[in-house]
Amino acid sequence: MTGILATSGRVALLTWETFRVTFRRPVEFRLLFEQMFRLGVRSLPLVGLTMIFTGAVMALQVSYTLAAYGAKIYVGSFVGVSVVKELGPVLTAVMIAARVGAGIAAELGSMAVTEQVDALRALGADPVKKLVWPRMVALLVMLPILTILGDVLGILGGLYIAVFEIGQSTVYYWTKVKEFLLIGDIVSGVGKTVFFAYFIGIIACYNGLRTRGGATGVGQATTNTVVGASIAIFVSNFFLAKVFLALQAAFSGGGW
């Protein structure tokens, strides 16, 4: 229990230091854009492939289930809501945790065990400003964007099944998607990814900077990052879903 509290305190301190250096000049835009490309743009093929087939298999499974109740016409509705509210945000975050989180932990861990982080401090540079801040901000910006693109691709995967397997028209499929998909669903799905991005980034950076023990330590930090970030995503998703559902119910009279 003491170890958990100590770790939580150190993570909170790293979070505060990252927030504090945000307002310290100069702003490292070059490093930020580099990380946005590396962490975000290069992850698009992985996210896209995952979401296309997720939407397709969901449409395929749902079509057979709904056929027993004569409700196959609602395939687009089920795919649209499920992908946007849950599957898109969670699967995208898990893919980013596996690819980006592990990469950050390995990269920073290698720098830590080879004393490059200590060298930065010796040169008067702040490791949080140079190493943590660009990666955290890049994740906070790019994960919601990747989620939106993944949602669209997931719905398109469902469209393929609806048109070529079920026999629906493209217009009818999109009509059913728009009929049941509310603005609140989009807001809640994308909104959760901001928290997911924070968990992935802070866990990866924390484990990377605290790596000790050479190559073995780097491997352990990478494993801990993927496992910890994945657990944080799934656990926080439950509580965030409850929060956003409550907000959606509160604003339901306003068109949410």
Could you please describe the fold and organization of this structure?
With 256 residues, this protein is mainly α. Helix 4 (75-113) runs antiparallel to helix 6 and helix 6 (127-166) crosses helix 8 (183-209). It has one domain. 85% of the residues lie in helices and 0% in strands. The chain contains 9 helices and no strands. The model has no long low-confidence stretch (mean pLDDT 89).
User: What's the count of strands?
Assistant: 0
Biggest pleated sheet: none
Note the overall shape.
elongated
Distance between the termini: 41 Å
Q: How large is the share of residues in beta strands?
A: under 5%
Number of domains: 1
Give the fraction of residues assigned to helices.
Answer: over 70%
Residue windows where pLDDT falls under 50 for at least 5 positions = none
Structural class: mainly alpha
- Average of the residue pLDDT scores: 89
Order of helices and strands: HHHHHHHHH
Discrete helix count: 9
Radius of gyration, in Å, reads: 21 Å
